[in-house]
Amino acid sequence: MRLSLRAALLAGALIASSGAALAEPVSLAQALTQGAEQSPRIAEAKAKAAAAEARARQAGASPNPELSVEVENFAGTGVFQGLRSTETTLAISQRIELGGKRSARVAVASSERDFAFLSFRAAEADLARDIRIAHAELRAAEDRAVLARENVGQARELARTARVLVEAGRDPPLRQLRAEAGLAEAQAEEARAFGELLAARRLLADLIGSDDPELSATPIYDEAAPGALPPATPSLDEQLAAAERDAAQARIRVARAEAVPDVTASGGVRRINDGRETAFVAGFSIPLPVRNRNRGGIEAAQSDALAGEAALLQARLNARRAQHDARMLLGAADARVEALSGPSLAQAEEAVRLARIGYGAGKFSLLELLDAQAALTTAKTALIEARLDRARALAALIRANVRAGD
């Protein structure tokens, strides 16, 4: 028990010592800006979008021509001894893509580029949502830590008062033991609150790239909710699913085009050493689509397109549900905040004040005072949690309403 009390006291001292650092807490706007600039998540998505843009440019390139040199009829026997009868052919060949391979390839690369840029936008939106929630969680953790510290101070004063009353013979020793047990419980809760504060601080610091060991968050309780999207407006997640479906459909064209054999045309000049004559040569080649017509590739691409269409429908359902659920949760949280921050909180504070005065005057028992303090702590904790739930629901609603053009 001594070690636990010592740890709790140390935690309380650390919370108290951080008061100076809380003088300049980070605002939500600052956190969002810093996170967008520092997050490796955004850097990764941006690099992938740039890579997709480069692949889209490369997709339109045609095959390179091939230069070949062929030497025949040398180092043999009889008339082919040495280099006297050597024939040298210098030729250039060009593969000609048929079946619309190039345009199909460009269509796939363009769809993948659109998907990559939408993924980049989604990464920004996801990061903003996570920062909003982490900022609110840090603010709530700070409020809980302050409340826990206040409860320790009240419990310590109550234990001192109980000890004085027991020594004066007005209360039995059991009252002092109960007050000291309440102090130990308050100190343990303070240590737990401090641990949650450290975890919340670390989470926000990681998201925004901060190395401030005493990072804190400004309170923001009245941020307005965004309006509803127009009925037929697709959300960012729907646009992302649509881009993925478009890429899958474009791959069907690529698979079908790959079933069409390409023609390779060649032409060159041949020199015959024996008579010092030259002649032109020309030819072409084409694969025979006897064994491989890419039927499996075509069927796979068609199935992927069907899966992409189903994924788009599911994304649309998920987006509508996310918008609806977030708005309902936000409305419920607003109602809780309004109810908990109204007269009931002031009444609970007044009840504690009167119970404390009455206990000192001998009109109320220790249990009545403890009940009043517990009711006040419950009310304050409920308000902190309601504000946190509102911030979470608001972050989810803002994320659900994001569009690519926002």
- CATH C-level: Mainly Alpha
> Radius of gyration, rounded?
38 Å
Q: What is the H/E order? A: HHHEEHHHEEHHH
The helix content, as a percent range, equals 55-70%
Which residues sit in consecutive blocks of at least 5 with pLDDT less than 50?
1-10, 12-23
Count helical runs.
Answer: 9
In terms of structural class, how would the helical and strand content be classed? alpha+beta
Quote the distance from N terminus to C terminus.
56 Å
Question: Judging by the overall fold, what is the CATH architecture?
Answer: Up-down Bundle
User: What would you call the shape?
Assistant: elongated
Write down the overall mean pLDDT: 85
CATH topology: Outer membrane efflux proteins (OEP)
Hey, roughly how much beta strand do the residues contain? 5-15%
| Number of E-type strands | 4
Strand order of the largest sheet: 1-2-3-4
User: Considering the protein shown, what is the CATH homologous superfamily?
Assistant: Outer membrane efflux proteins (OEP)
Main pleated sheet: 4 strands, antiparallel
Whole-number total of structural domains: 1
Sequence-ordered SSE layout with sheet pairings:
Layout: H1 2-17, H2 28-38, H3 40-59, E1 66-72, E2 87-96, H4 101-167, H5 173-208, H6 236-258, E3 263-272, E4 277-285, H7 295-340, H8 343-360, H9 366-400
Antiparallel strand pairs: 1-2, 2-3, 3-4
Helix pairs in contact: 1-5, 2-4, 3-4, 4-5, 4-6, 4-9, 6-7, 7-9, 8-9
